Amino acid sequence: MDFYFGLAQLIGVHTLLGLSAYVVLLTGQVSLAQAGFFAIGAYVAAMLTVLAGWHLVPALGAAALTGATTACAVGFPALRVKGLMLVIATLAFGEGVRLFFFNFDYQIARGDVKVGPLGGEGFRQIRFFPENGWTTLEVMLFIWIFVLLVMALLWWLDRSRYGAVLRAVGEDELAAQSAGINLTAVKVSAITLGGAIAALGGGLYAHYATHIEHLSFGILLATFAIAYPIVGGLASVFGTLAAVLFVQGFLVEGLRDLGDWRNLLFGALIVLAMNLRPRGFLDAGNLRAIKRLFWGGGRGAP
Amino acid sequence: MALLELQGVSRHFGGVRAIDGLDLEVREGEILGLIGPNGSGKSTAVNVITGLYPPSAGRIAFDGRDITAAATHRRLSEGIARTFQNIRLFGGLTVWQNLWVAQNSARDRAARGFLSRWMGGQSGAREGIGKLLAFAGLAGREDELASNLAFGEQRRLEFARALAAKPKLLLLDEPAAGMNAGEIADLDERIRAVRERGVTVLLIEHHMELVMAVTDRVAVLNFGQKIAEGTPAQIQAHSAVRKAYLGGDH
Amino acid sequence: MKKIALAIALAFAAGAASTAQAQEKSIRISGFGAKSGVVRSFGINGEAAMLAAADQINKAGGVKLADGSKARIVVDYYDDRCTAEEGISVIRRIAGTDSLVAVGPTCSNVAEPLFGILQKKVDDKGDSGLQMPVFTDVAIKVGLARISEWAFRNVPNEMTMYSSVFYWLRGKHPQAKTVYGGVEEDFAHSRATWHVVMKDRATANNYTLLGESKWLLNDTNFATQVREMKKANADVVAISAHPFTTCGVLKEMQRQGVKPKVLIGLTSSSSMETMQGCAKQAEGMIIPTSYAPVNKEAKAASDATAKFKGSADLHSMAAWENMFILKSVMEDMKISGAKAEVQADRRKIRDGLAKLRTTPGLLGVNSRTEDREADKPYLFVQAKGGQWVVIHNPL
Amino acid sequence: MLDLLQSASDGVLYGATYALIGIGFTLVFGVMHKINMAYGAASVGGAYLGLMVLKLGAGLPVPLVFFGSFLAGGLLGWMVYLACFHFIPLSSPLATLMSTVGMLLLIDEVIVHTTDGMPQNYPALFDDVMLRFGEFTLRGDLLLVFLVSVACMAGLLALLYRTRLGLATRAVSQQAIAAQLCGIRLAQVNVTTFVITGLLGGIAGAMIGAAVGTLSPLLTTPLTVKGLIVTVIGGLGSVPGAIVAGLLVGGFENVIQLYRGVTERDLYVMLLLFAFLVFRPGGLFAPAGGRN
Q1: A274 touches chain D (CB under 8 A)
Q2: Which of A82, A289, B3, B177 could form a disulfide with B28 if both were Cys (CB 3.0 to 4.6 A apart)?
Q3: In this predicted complex, what is the ipTM?
């Protein structure tokens, strides 16, 4: 059973990563910077629990705050460009963060061993969970409390005017501007929120993995971050969750027993999924169908 | 009293002078028609007024304040709303949401706190949007995706979206394009109804019958410059206008 | 969605079925490591060696259990794609089966987090880390087993090996006095091997260090680094990098005409990969390794592994040795082999491994250290005509 | 000073490989306004397939391997088009972005499976030639790569500006709808673009293989990243821009490496990119029409 709890932890962490990209994607921006915010969260939270001896919860709060601040600061210049230019700009930022941690040493002596991040060697022994005797189940519940909180927040935002405005900007920036929407404010706020969520996920990841190094936060992770909401569909937060379940639960773990075929199928099935459902698993159409299924013909919120 | 005033406004694209030293005055409460042949600079004028293009030269004042350098979204909350020549709705949003996101007038900002305006649910806005829906003849369609509406309905929705910002000045960029006679009659009524509520209207249009029927005054553009201004009757009789539209032979 | 749900269910069911096909008395040993990506050969060879060793043990009657009966060894192997996340998932998955011990992983960057989630100290009630013995065959970065008392390694001790290499060079090339290093800076193992091991061992053997050039794992242009190397004009050049960049650097050295008296390579490069990539340029490179088919036993192991479509190298043969070490530990510690006793048996195996001070190995006796590492016999191989040839055998 | 000159020239010559990849990205972007993330991987894949020539006949001359890579690249370009673009509506740019990422992973993994991830020796021409000017040296094989890139650019520009096909391609890239009304078949232009960029990618893969001397799946990610950076710095859709930017980035990173070391090198490349995005968002050669 522990295996499934562990898998659920990983799925939770990746869901946060995917949701962070989801928020930004709603405004029509493809951000490959999410892995960078994730890395910042991971290092900040880990340094606070390991080096400063904080409890994990405030450490995660600080990580999210750092992620949000960085994202906000990056958002202003980066969001001057859009489309492919933004993809590359954010990719460059993400790589920049990774390379920063590649060059980042901050170790202090703890007894006869040194702890803390050490450049390319990474950051070892981030053992808040096992040292405090948390079982796999407890860790899973802890992680999922955050995932559910974030999902609820985004679900609720989607029903607020702010959520509608995010989507309006994603649909047509010119019309949104002409309808009185401050594009810069909306986009920067979205990437700030995304930065906070990604950093929160990163903080949890560091404690899940117990060891982090710059290579874990490369382009592949950034690609996964945007892949989840795109494969899952932008119609709802549940799309991202569905895609994480598909990728981590099915493609990675579910197919493990297929041996070599698993790796070949991984890419092929993503190609196939995009051909069959270019707007993602959950689009507005089947979301309505699901709603009807659960709530009978009545239309949801007015 | 002038609600909107353009003084010597120019906008150049490279070597092309889309509008060139334009003076234009829209008086409070009137319906002003802005006509001119294709490429005469009408749409550029709208884009300069709404702030999508910064003017190359000149000054724009609205309601007594200089707005030459103000951002587009600022101008909307000041009270300038518009529709687009080729409809630009938020296709993936519902009819209801299209109107909801556009409620950005200064009055709305003042009336509700930041949190309730942005984070609040749909209930707070229900009454105002209900009226808009009724006005646009879209009552009962509020949950439809905007992209699923018929062409005429999309035009009406865009019209309503502009009104959702409680504008003082409404810029209509060729609202009759692609409409049949019945729809144009509806549009005529709707424009008059808007004016009844105290909204000033700047109507950019090709459809002369509509312009002549509904406007109080008409301004004519050609090659980026104003060549005539007056009542519809005066304009119809104006020789320069006839020349601009029909060519030099007449 | 329905189809996907069905597929997921089927996939899990298939997994359950394959783990449930228990024969009459059998015990399970699980291997894991990279079977995809650029280090795929590690996993393929490791799995083949484990299967071959299990086959040999089973043919000889299997493992004797506490009640005197015999059990067959069943081996399964999991791909972790050389990523930390999958490594953790895989070890949790293995811990969820009746597997008694895990052999792996192949990548040092997986081993670090993996050992991190294990219980740090045995019997520490406050530590909820996983209690699963892991007996590593490949991941070689120095000092990793220290992370957890459940982690054991049977990988060559690079400290000893390179110490010996430089000592041997002193005698062999007395005129060589200076060393220059080249290091793949962003990969955990190669980086540690240069900065922690090679540098230290070279100076300890009275070599003068002239400098070092750095490059990254997937770099392709080495002109600047090799130019620095050329300027230093050292007698010995030591390259701590994996085959891909090792080959790139060697080719650039050839272009620029850098010909040191002695060329030393990273342990993991003493494989066929280097020969596939740049046999010509690697000619003469000396690498210490813990395996070469130098005796009857080692040759037999190599042949047996080949039957399972794997090739024998220092990594896969460590997996081979692990199987035999585990067999004797299980017999010594009198494990029950019963499904209900899995956790107790795992503990017995851990304690048994911890007690070992020497183990038999293909090249001779391996000694084991306090902090659960091995000190394995080694020999030096040199690239000659597309083959690795043993040039010195300190045994 | 000599060090600087030497580093810069080494880098600029090596930058020719970045330029070749950049051209492919920029061409697809120009015509379809889409990113083909699988391009770098397909190019390397083309080079791998070219190696089959060596497997089939050991004594065959090296240019045949290059030619094999060239053809295989075209084939892969066509396959990428079919799998990632043909059936996905134009209105879903995110879907094609993702499908090409999936394709990248697939091509990588196919390479890994067929070679067990082992680096493969790739033949080069003139790899034993070093031009020497006193202390200063130039790599013969890189000069060849450089010349081939220049020839490819010239060929491509001739194709774009001297043939009917090129005219149609340029028409589609500027006004897709108007071009359709003029009787140009959009799908045909799109598929042709992919085959042409694929052929170019095959050459790029072969040249990269020759420059590095070894093929490995490790090549694909850095090539993709460098190619994208080059595309942006050169100006989206600008072929000459991609070439100049490729050489510029190659030279720049090598000089930075000389002074700041390899661990900081890529950081500065990213800063260079940022500088361009802020001060010259249109790139070196912003294409006519000021497209975004």
Answers
A1: yes
A2: B3
A3: 0.90
Going along chain D from its start, the domains and CATH numbers come out as: 2-128+140-279 (1.10.3470)
Cβ atoms < 10 Å from Cβ of C211: 14
Closest CB from B96, B102, B119 relative to A162: B119
Q: Please say whether the beta carbons of D73 and D46 come within 8 A.
A: yes
Q: Do A270 and D102 touch (CB under 8 A)?
A: yes
Cα distance between residue B41 and residue A257, in whole Å = 67
Instruction: Provide the residue ranges of all domains of chain B, joining segments of one domain with +.
Output: 30-54+65-79+167-250, 90-164
pTM: predicted TM-score of the whole model, two decimal places: 0.92
Inspect the interface and report whether the beta carbons of B121 and A159 lie closer than 8 Å: yes
Q: Between the CA of residue C142 and those of A187, C138, C157, what are the distances in Å? A: 47, 12, 8
Amino acid at C377: P
Residues in C whose CB is inside 8 Å of some CB of A read 1, 4, 7-8, 11-12, 14-15, 18, 35-36, 78-79, 81, 83-86, 88-90, 92-93, 95-96, 109, 112-113, 116-117, 119-120, 125-130, 147, 185-188, 191-192
| Residues near D257 by beta carbon (within 8 Å), at least 6 away in sequence | C224, D7, D265
Q: List the 89-108 stretch of A: residues with Cβ below 8 A of D.
A: 89, 91-93, 95-96, 99-100, 102-103
Q: Sign of the C-alpha dihedral, residues B164, B165, B170, B172?
A: negative
pLDDT in tens, A253-274: 999 888 788 888 999 999 999 9
Compute CA distances A214 → A120, C111, D285, whole Å.
Answer: 7, 16, 35
CB count in 10 Å sphere of residue B32: 22
Q: How far apart are CA B246 and CA B190, in angstroms?
A: 30
The CA distance from B172 to B163, in Å, is: 11
**Would you state the structure tokens that stand for residue A38, as one six-digit string?**
């994730």
Report the neighbours of D using a cutoff of 3 or more CB pairs below 8 angstroms. Answer: A, C
Contact C104, C134 (CB under 8 A): yes
Which tens digit of pLDDT belongs to each residue from D210-240?
888 889 898 998 899 999 999 999 988 888 8
Selected residue of C77, C186, C371 to mutate for chain A interface (largest A Cβ count, 10 A)? C186
